[in-house]
Design a protein that fits this description.
- With about 425 residues, this protein is of the alpha+beta class.
- It has a domain of about 30 residues.
- About 40% of the residues lie in helices and about 15% in strands.
- It has 16 helices and 18 strands.
- Strands 1, 2, 3, 4, 13, 14, 15, 16 and 17 form a 9-stranded antiparallel sheet that branches. Strands 5-10-7 form a 3-stranded antiparallel sheet. A two-stranded parallel sheet has the order 6-9.
- A hairpin with a 5-residue loop joins strand 15 and strand 16.
C-alpha cells in the first residue's frame, strides 16, 4: 500500500471513530452560560448557547463594545473541563498572539508620547541591536514582521526573560536577518515579543518591563485587566487549555470542507526546513504546549508574542476605546493621529514562507469589511481574536480555552458570532435612530 493510500485509509478511520465517539460515547456537558447582553442582541446569545449545548464551545467568552459601552458580554462552558470547574465572569485565559495586537497599542502609545518614532532605526533606541545587518531595521519594519528576524540561531531559556533579561538582549543583538530587511515579510511568531518587548524597555524613560508598562499606562488607568505573563497569585483564575485531538481536527476538516487547518499541520509536520517550521522552533527553548502553559512556572513569563492573559470583556473594552476615537472620561488612550496610523497596511501579498497572506500594519493585522472599511487587531492560536472597527465604533473579542484547529482565515465560531453581532447592530441602530 502506498504512503498516500495509507494516509487516506487512516484519515477515513479517524473520521469514523470521531463520528462514533461524538454520536454515541461523548457525554454532553451541562449547560453553563453567564453574562449580559442588550435585548436587541439576543441572536448572538442564542447562537452562543446553541454551541455550548452542542459541545462546540467547551469554555470561552465573547464580548463587543459599541461607543465605549458593552452590548454583549457573555461566557460559558468550563475553565477546566475534566474537573467541571465553570468558566465565570472573572476567568482569565491565555490569548496567544492576540497579545501582539495589545503590544502594538503600547508601541502606538510610545509614539504618541514621543518615546518612539516608527521611522527611526531600532538601533537609535537600542544601539547594540544594530550589529550583524540589523542597523537599518526601523521600528516600523520590526513591528510589521519585515525585519527578517523570525528565525533565531539557537534559543534562550524562557525564564531568562524574568531572571536574566540582559542575556536575552545579548542573544537578540547577535542575531542576523534571514532575508534583507524591508524586502518582504514573514510572521515573527515567537520572536516578535522578544524584540518588541526589549525595544519598549529600552525606549521607556523608566526602563520598565512590558508587563509593568501595560499595567501602569493602560490597565490601571482605563480599568482593563490584562496581564503579560500571569502573576502566580492569580493562577487559580486561569482556564486550563486543551488542544483539539487529531480526530477532532480531521472531523472539522471533513464537516466544514475547510482544508486549511490540515494544510498548516502538514506544513509544520513534514516541511522541517520551511520558514514556518523554523519560526515555530525559534526564540525560546520552551514553547507553549499542553505540558507547559498550564503551569504557573510558564504562565508567569511576560512574552507578548504569545503569553498575555485576559478575557473577551477586557479585550473588547480595550479595542473598543481605540475604535471609539481613543478618548474616555479617564483620559486619552491614543490620539486620533495614532489610530489613523494603525489603519494603514505596510505589507501585502504572500509572506516569505509562502503560506501566510496577511496585511500587517503597525503591529496589527489589517482587514476590511464588506464596504471596504478598515478593521485592525490580532488573532491568536486556537481561535483567540480582538479587533477595533472604527467605522462602527466597535471593539470585539473572543477567547477560548479549547485550542481549536489551526487557521489563518479565522475561527469559524467567532466569525459566526461576529456576523450575528453586525446583523443585530444594524437593527439596533435603525431602532435607536434619533
Amino acid at each position: 500500500m502506498t504512503g498516500l493510500k495509507k494516509i487516506s485509509v487512516l484519515t477515513i478511520a479517524v473520521v469514523i471513530l470521531a463520528y462514533v465517539y461524538k454520536t454515541f460515547i461523548q457525554k454532553p456537558l451541562p449547560l453553563n452560560f453567564g453574562g449580559t447582553f442588550h435585548p436587541d442582541f439576543q441572536e448572538v446569545a442564542d447562537l452562543y448557547k446553541s454551541k455550548l449545548r452542542a459541545g462546540v464551545e467547551l469554555g470561552s467568552s465573547f464580548a463587543a463594545y459599541y461607543k465605549g459601552e458593552p452590548l454583549v458580554d457573555i461566557w460559558g462552558g468550563f475553565a477546566d473541563v475534566a474537573l467541571k470547574r465553570p468558566w465565570t465572569k472573572d476567568t482569565l485565559s491565555i490569548i496567544f498572539s492576540t497579545s501582539k495586537g495589545v503590544t502594538a497599542l503600547l508601541v502606538a502609545l510610545f509614539v504618541d508620547r514621543g518615546w518612539l518614532d516608527y521611522n527611526k532605526p531600532v538601533a537609535h533606541y537600542w544601539p547594540e541591536f544594530g550589529q550583524n545587518g540589523k542597523d537599518n531595521i526601523t521600528v516600523a519594519l520590526l513591528i510589521s514582521h519585515q525585519g527578517g528576524l523570525s528565525v533565531t540561531n539557537g534559543t534562550v531559556p524562557m525564564e531568562w526573560i524574568v531572571e536574566k533579561p540582559e542575556k536575552v538582549w545579548e542573544f537578540l543583538e547577535k542575531q542576523r536577518p534571514i532575508w534583507p530587511p524591508g524586502t518582504g515579510y514573514g510572521y515573527h511568531g515567537i520572536t516578535y515579543g522578544l524584540y518588541v518587548d526589549s525595544l519598549l524597555t529600552k525606549a521607556d524613560p523608566k526602563h520598565r518591563r512590558v508587563d509593568k508598562i501595560f499595567k501602569e499606562e493602560i490597565g490601571d488607568k482605563f480599568g482593563i485587566e490584562l496581564y503579560n505573563g500571569l502573576p502566580n497569585h492569580l493562577f487559580y483564575r486561569a482556564a486550563r487549555h486543551e488542544p483539539n485531538p487529531l480526530y477532532v481536527t480531521l472531523w472539522n476538516v471533513i464537516t466544514s470542507m475547510d482544508p486549511e487547518p490540515l494544510s498548516l499541520m502538514m506544513t509544520l509536520a513534514l516541511s522541517k526546513n520551511s520558514l514556518l517550521t523554523q519560526m515555530s522552533q525559534s526564540g525560546t527553548d520552551q514553547l507553549p504546549s499542553d505540558l507547559s502553559f498550564n503551569t504557573p512556572e510558564y504562565s508567569r513569563i511576560p512574552q507578548s508574542s504569545m503569553n498575555g492573559y485576559s478575557n473577551a470583556r477586557n479585550l473588547a473594552k480595550l479595542f473598543g476605546i481605540v475604535a471609539n476615537g481613543g478618548k474616555t472620561k479617564e483620559g486619552v488612550l491614543l490620539s486620533e493621529k495614532a489610530i489613523e496610523k494603525l489603519k494603514r497596511p505596510l505589507t501585502s501579498g504572500k509572506s516569505m514562507d509562502g503560506v501566510i497572506n496577511i496585511e500587517f500594519g503597525y503591529g496589527v493585522g489589517i482587514g476590511r469589511d464588506d464596504k471596504g472599511n478598515v478593521v485592525f487587531g490580532h488573532d491568536g492560536a486556537g481561535g483567540q481574536s480582538a479587533f477595533a472597527d472604527p467605522a462602527h465604533k466597535t471593539g470585539m473579542a473572543y477567547v477560548t480555552s479549547r485550542l481549536k484547529s489551526m487557521t489563518i482565515s479565522g475561527d469559524k465560531d467567532f466569525l459566526q458570532y461576529k456576523a450575528a453581532y453586525y446583523r443585530c447592530l444594524e437593527k439596533y441602530l435603525q431602532k435607536h435612530k434619533t
